[in-house]
Amino acid sequence: MAPSLDDESSLFNFVVRDGNGVKGIVDSGISKVPRPYIQPPAEQINKKNASKCEIPPIDLSKLDGPEHDEVANQIVRAAETLGFFQVVNHGVPIQLLDSLKQTAHNFFGLPAERKAVYRKEVSPSPLVKYGTSFVPEKEKALEWKDYISMGYTNENEALQQWPMECRCRDVALQYLKTSHEMVKKLLDVLMANLGVELDDSNIDAFIGKKMVNMNFYPTCPNPELTVGVGRHSDMGTLTILLQDGIGGLHVKVPEIIDMEKKEEWVEIPRIPGALVINIGDMLQFQIWSNGRYKSAEHRVRTTSTKSRVSIPIFTSPRATQKVAPLPQVIEKDGISHYREFLFSDYMNSFFGNAHDGKKSLDFAKIN
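== Fe2OG dioxygenase domain-containing protein ==
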């Protein structure tokens, strides 16, 4: 039964509590964006005003050859400025990337009752959550997005608990496994620049926890009024993102960058076969780098032409990991900008509030 668009309680129950998601209201035949999804004017995205980010992708295969130092410098420079870059020749098979996109479309095309069994309140596994928006109970305006989230602790648990519908488990697990070497290479470069050697004894401190999401952005009758995802930075270490051919990812150019577009939003273009990498809060001003690397503020627009999918891998410390600026970095800087904390506390703060740019970093700042 379609919800009443004029009754916010009815709409909320239909979308969130009954598990129909945004796709459910789109399938009901709406012709306008319901009021709870209309963002304040300052948060709305004008596609016509967005320019493309012209930074070319980084060829990771060259890290293993004579151009290693040049490529490493490109990675560090991107991490210290925009906080976003794209990589090609990354080792993840293109065929797998295509399969991931199709699998996401197939999953969200399932009847609502088959997806709703994974809602947080009823999911058979604490590792798996199907939901919509970010924190619907806390948001002043909802986000035009549905998602399935699959947390990873070890392969056996993933095999037993991740959803098997539409081969979600199999392709997502393969994506996670084949991207691992790429993530290690990127961290090797970024940590070496801080004077830290990455090895098996300390890698869990950076990426001991992983999560694969499949995000679905249904077509929207008024894309200029709402957003797929609001302004935020990612809470973890590194995010690996697969975009589809539609695009819609926008990144805010920090004021520290000496370019005409500073403090404006640029769109990350779709490059066939590329993966998008962004720096998360745990590397950022963050926390290990004491502010040298910049977690990127980003958001996602919607579209009226075709439903869109994206598949990110979020890497972060384990919940019990203590996080603080690295001692050798503090020694060089002469000051610490961030306090020590448990990652679980940061995570609870992050998910306990609606998206609000990079305000999440206030949790760790030393005033």
